[in-house]
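Standup notes, structure subgroup. Blocker cleared on the flavin-adenine dinucleotide input:
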Amino acid sequence: MNAIRISRNDRAGARRIDVSFEFFPPKDEAMEKILWGSIERLAPLSPNFVSVTYGAGGSTRERTHATVKRILGETPLTPAAHLTCVAATKAEIDNVVRSYHDAGVRHIVALRGDSVDGAGAKYAPHPGGYETSAALVAGIKKISSDFEVSVSAYPEKHPDSATVDADIDMLKAKVDAGANRAITQFFFENDLYFRYLDRVRARGINIPIVPGILPVQNFKAATNFATRAGASVPAWLADRFNGLDNDPATRKLIAAAVAAEQVLDLVDQGVTNFHFYTMNRADLVFAICHLLGLRPAVDQAA
Ligand code: FAD
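Run returned:
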């Protein structure tokens, strides 16, 4: 008997693909222009939500708020504000959460954050602050059960964590505190994600574990980022970018090919939800979303 082969396009076409986009708050006017250009380009793809990061040590608190509030006020997008436990008391964090609620924000990405001395330095909770990300999730839900709360997940384990199981214990605590969704640290080998997912499900965790995808706009920056985040960079990936330091046009094509290969393989294996680390740049993410079958809302209506 002949096996029925379902092509990748048929599969992706038959499923609804949901995406979300992550941005960081801009430091200056030039970066602000880049960010808003990217938001305008990606908004017509109707993402589930767009999230705005919170700088290390709470350093971007005001800029994160301003960006989230502008998204809420000037676009049809649903913003999610990242928030960490770092360098603030519970009362200070609760005030931030309440001010988001008053402004109409209903989605928070709740994180422990890194030590004020930088990622890799030993973390100590702030005196009077939330001790863990799970405690922060519970605190947010206590302020209002309207909040949707996303949390982090680490397919290759967080660098502070002794084992993957210890890491999954923390994820379980966050889920028990009310987390609605986890977004993974980026990874380049899809097997890492699927192995992790098996362990998470075996632990009785049933919330969506959305893969975080980092399109490699700049290989050196991505490698530095990965080293700090405890994500591995496979030799084959380094090899693909090798020799292209002075060839930005080819680098961009390779980056698109690498990301396309990764997300289409995930789709082939049943994944329908993606979170993109945009680094505030739209082009690559827009192209990958196009491959995933997403079209600007205006085209669909035509
Ligand atoms: P958790 O999930 O709470 O903990 C991670 C692991 O560390 C767990 O396994 C836990 O067991 C272990 N652990 C926690 N505390 C301790 C301890 N005291 N001793 C030993 N082990 C411990 N950072 C920002 O600053 N701003 C952001 O906006 C931001 N956004 C992010 C978004 C996503 C989707 C992800 C994946 C990460 C993001 N980060 C951000 C990075 C994050 O803050 C760091 O990775 C931080 O080190 C851990 O925070 P967490 O909430 O992920 O940790």
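Discussed briefly. The longest strand covers residues 18-23.
Next: hand off to the docking folks.
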